[in-house]
Amino acid sequence: MIIAPSLLAANYTRFGEEVRRAGCSGADWLHLDIMDGHFVPNISFGPGVVRAVRPLSKLFFDVHLMCSQPEILLEPFAVAGADEIIVHVELGEQVTSLLWKIKSLGKKVGLAINPPTAVTEVQPHLDQIDLLLVMTVNPGFGGQEFIHETLPKIQQAEAWRRERKLPYRISVDGGINYQTAAECARAGADTFVSGTTLFGAHNLKAAVKKMRKIVNANDPALADLTV
Ligand code: DX5
Ligand code: ZN
Question: C-alpha angle 132/136/138, rounded to 5°?
C-alpha cells in the first residue's frame, strides 16, 4: 500500500519545508498536481518548482499532468525530477504515443481517468502502464467531496488486473480521507493520494500512519490470508 500526500494542499508560503515535512512523514510518494488552466479550470505550478524541491526529498515524485498539451511538458518534468508521469485518457488518440514517450524518458507510466469517463476507455492501454489513476473527484481543486459512483471503476480495474495478470497499480485521487480510503482499499486500490486530509493535518506523520493502518486493515489480499 502506497500513501502519497498531494502537495496541492501544502502551505504555499513554505513549499520547501512542506516537501521536507512529507519526506519525514513515513509517506511513500509525493503527488504533484500540474494544472494548466485549460484542461482544468485552475493553475498550480510547473517544472521549475518541481526542480527546486527535488533535492529536498528522496520521495518518489508522482507527477499528475492535468494539461491539454502534455507532449510539450513530458521532457521538462522528466528532467525536473519526476519519477512517474501521469497523463489523462480524455486526451484521446494521442494517449498511446504519450505513454510511449514517458517510457522512453525512463519514467514510470501513469494513466488517469476522470469521473464522467467510461472505464472501458482505459482498457486498450492497460498493458502499457505502471499505474492507473482513478479520479474520485472532478480534477482541478483540492478539498472536494469523494464521488462514490467511481468505486465500481476501481473494482473493474482490479478485475482486469487479476484476469490479465497485469502489474499496474490502482491509485485513487480526490476526497480521500480515512473513511473513503478504506472504501477504495476494499474495492482494490493500492495507492492513495490525499491532499487535505494529510497536509491539512497538524501532525502529518501521525496522519500517514493512521491512513496506512486503515488501508492495510481493509486490504482484500490480507483478508484472504486470514480466512
Ligand atoms: C485534484 C487533484 C488531487 C488533489 C486531491 O484535482 O488531482 O490530487 O490534490 O486533494 P484532496 O485530497 O484535498 O481532495
Ligand atoms: Zn492528482
Answer: 110
C-alpha to C-alpha distance for 132 and 121, rounded to whole angstroms = 12
Ligand 1 nearest-atom number relative to CA 140: 6
pLDDT tens for 108-156 read 999 999 999 999 999 999 999 999 999 999 999 999 999 999 999 999 9
Ligand 1: lining residues by beta carbon, under 6 Å: 6, 8-9, 31, 33, 64, 137, 139-144, 173-176, 193-196
Helix, strand, coil percentages, rounded to 5, for the chain: 50, 20, 30
Residue 216 confidence (pLDDT)? 98
Closest-lying ligand 1 atom to the alpha carbon of residue 135? 7
CA distance 109 to 105: 10
| pLDDT for residue 8 | 97
pTM above 0.90, yes or no: yes
Grid cell for residue 166: 497485469
Low-confidence ranges of the chain (pLDDT < 50): none
| Cα 120 to averaged position of ligand 1 atoms, centre (Å) | 23
Q: What is the DSSP string of 91-142?
A: GGGGHHHHHHHHHHTT-EEEEEE-TTS-GGGGGGGGGG-SEEEEESS-TT-S
What pLDDT is recorded for position 222? 82
Active site residues: 33, 173
